[in-house]
Amino acid sequence: MKLSALSLAAALMAAPQVAAFAPAAKPAFATSLSSATATEFDLNEYLLSKKGPIEKALEESVDSNCPETKKICESMLYSLMAGGKRIRPVVCLAACEMFDGSDEKAMPAAVALEMIHTMSLIHDDLPSMDNDDLRRGKPTNHVIYGEDVAILSGDALLSESFKHVALNTKGVDPQRVLDVVVRLGRSVGPNGLAGGQVMDLECEAKEGVTLEELTWIHTHKTATLLQVAVASGAILGGATPEEVAACEKFALNIGLAFQVADDILDVTASTEDLGKTAGKDEDTDKTTYPKLLGLQESKDEARRLIDEAKASLEQFGDRAAPLLAIADYIVDRKN
Amino acid sequence: MKLSALSLAAALMAAPQVAAFAPAAKPAFATSLSSATATEFDLNEYLLSKKGPIEKALEESVDSNCPETKKICESMLYSLMAGGKRIRPVVCLAACEMFDGSDEKAMPAAVALEMIHTMSLIHDDLPSMDNDDLRRGKPTNHVIYGEDVAILSGDALLSESFKHVALNTKGVDPQRVLDVVVRLGRSVGPNGLAGGQVMDLECEAKEGVTLEELTWIHTHKTATLLQVAVASGAILGGATPEEVAACEKFALNIGLAFQVADDILDVTASTEDLGKTAGKDEDTDKTTYPKLLGLQESKDEARRLIDEAKASLEQFGDRAAPLLAIADYIVDRKN
Q1: How many CB pairs lie under 8 A apart between chains A and B?
Q2: Following DSSP, what letter does each residue of B174-199 receive, concatenated?
């Protein structure tokens, strides 16, 4: 049964305890890699099986050890535990698994990725940036804790992410862990999130943004971190450089598709479904894929990117089933 | 000759090219470790010998590789290359040298430390934080580039610092590099810069801040990063855990002394000497060491901390001369 994005979203909102929500047992992997396979693979069950451990690891990653750090830890956890799809941790674990690596090996990197993603959300929502009061249906960090603490909590999450992965990754060659640190570091710098965001701000101020510029922005704002998520999982699972490169190609394409889908959802979905203000792009006259390509062509582009992504993983056969199913989910989701 | 802090400051402001400023050759290390030794050691010459390579490594650490990243790299470099005493890089190199490690081994960590320090200055100066327009005699980052770009440049510097150290540290056991990553990561989190800053903000809003609270704040806002600087240098130089612990004790004490000296300078120095607004603590009714202890007792406390710091390095004999001289400089400086 192909999951509807709606039932998947419901599953992802479920409490961290997985057992009560798990459907009847199914084989973890489908048996063939035909186009039907990703459909047969039970992504819902797979995601539920990862959700509990990921939420637990995230919660344990920030721990106030004295009264003086209570407030900053509370602010960090407020945003870190505010729900969300946990797509970056999931694809990191799935990529590690594709190379027969255990979840245990990749979980610290998975947590680090979500810390970095959360930092970027906290800082993006600030009044001097996107000025958003609502995120995942809740008041944004600075609305609750003030701008100053929100900035510092983002800094702390970013910094702790590196500590977390370097300190807690066990049973992996240290040189591979350093490789993950390098990639995580790059994902926020000029050729990552922050670079993409600055270019985005520059383009907001000008007329006639091109498709190339929009693609550069989304590659760096969104795709890079997903790319690092999949590559890190692969590296920690023991992949060769060539295998890591194939994974990166996959992730770059699903990352771009993710952003095209986001732009489409901003036009087509309700604020209630999104958990954030819908129609904001049009209100702020922002350049989006639907604006440059039209809605239908944007949908076609997202599908094309996903098909290209999936082709990169053909060499891994059935072991790629979770990542292939996630790729489909990214363009079919409702929020 | 004991250097006056003024001539030292002048030396530190000198151009990166060292040769033209180098005084007549002196032995790199004094021959005994009596209290007179740190005085005999030519700190001016030592600092000048490090300044060129540090400035060069900092400049090369941020490099825009495409037109899209030009603006964020410019903003990052604006603050990174705005001068400053480079104390953290210098103590990192000096600690590495104390264990016969080359500057080459510790330089990536030295650069990472200055990137982190610069990030903290950019974010601290923001309107929602200390709201400072002037830093090192120049307009602060957000005055030039806007709040949004300043926040993102800080994020990029923080993130790139980890990439830089993990990617560029050569000839060192990877497990030691990971240890440095862990310490750098911790230095900005709840038990580091960000935690100290949040506690500082909380204390600004209340009456009757205690000496214990003030010490906690300064330990985390200031001393922790210096501690990581010295510990990282020692680790990269090949120190044993016990030797690293002795270095950390030294650095914690000089870090606290550094902050006490900063509080004293805010009262006694001019805005011109400081390169930032003097008298600001009193204007903003901030709790400082001079306010809690009085000016003379604060000076005595700074000296006591420095003496205690220096005692931690006795075991290293003459090899500790640069760090001992830096300790003295910290309480004697004029800005």
Answers
A1: 199
A2: HHHHHHHHHHHHHTTSTTSHHHHHHH
How many Å lie between the alpha carbon of B118 and the closest alpha carbon of chain A? 13
Contact A156 B190 (CB under 8 A): yes
> Lowest mean pLDDT: which of A11-15, A40-44, A175-179, A326-330?
A11-15
Q: What is the mean pLDDT of residues A155-167?
A: 98
Residue with structure tokens 């729900």? A83
CB nearest B123 (choices: A155, A198, A213): A155
**CA–CA separation, B315 vs B318, rounded Å?**
9
| Higher-pLDDT residue of B234, A222 | B234
Query: Which one of B69, B146, B188 has the shortest CB-CB distance to A190?
Result: B69
Q: Which of B68, B73, B128 sits opposite A216 (nearest CB)?
A: B68
Give the residue extent of every domain in chain A.
5-332
In chain B, residues with a C-beta closer than 8 Å to the C-beta of A74 are none
DSSP helix/strand/coil, A26 = coil
**From A69, A147, A188, residue closest to B195, measured CB to CB:** A69
State how far residue A159 is from chain B, nearest Cα, in angstroms: 5
What confidence category does residue A204 fall into, taking pLDDT thresholds of 50, 70 and 90?
confident
Residue B138: φ, ψ to 5°: -125, 160
| Nearest-angstrom CA–CA distance, A236 and A177 | 7
Q: Write down the architecture of domain A5-332 according to CATH.
A: Orthogonal Bundle (1.10)
Rounded to an integer, the average pLDDT of A165-185 is 98
Chain A residues whose CB is inside 8 A of the B197 CB are 148, 152
CA–CA min distance B200, chain A (Å): 10
Position A54 pLDDT exceeds 50: yes
How far is Cα B253 from Cα B219, in angstroms, rounded to an integer? 9
Q: How confident is the model at residue A22 (pLDDT cuts 50, 70, 90)?
A: very low
* Residue B124 amino acid letter: D
Q: Between chains, do B188 and A160 touch, taking CB under 8 Å as contact?
A: yes
Flag whether pLDDT at B151 surpasses 80: yes
Given an 8 Å threshold on Cβ–Cβ distance, is A163 in contact with B76? no
Q: Which residue of A has its CA nearest to B215?
A: A68
- CB neighbour burial string for A225-263, b if at least 16 within 10 angstroms, e if fewer: bbbbbbbbbbbbbebeeebbebbbbbbbbbbbbbbbbbb
> pLDDT tens digit string along A280-322?
666 667 788 999 999 999 999 999 999 999 999 999 999 999 9
Q: Are A150 and A120 in contact (CB under 8 A)?
A: no
- Pick among B120, B158, B217 to test the A interface (most A CBs inside 10 A): B158
- Tell me if residue A166 falls in helix, strand or coil: helix
> Regarding predicted confidence, which is higher, B307 or B206?
B307
Work out the average pLDDT over B97-125: 98
Residue of A nearest to B219 (CA): A68
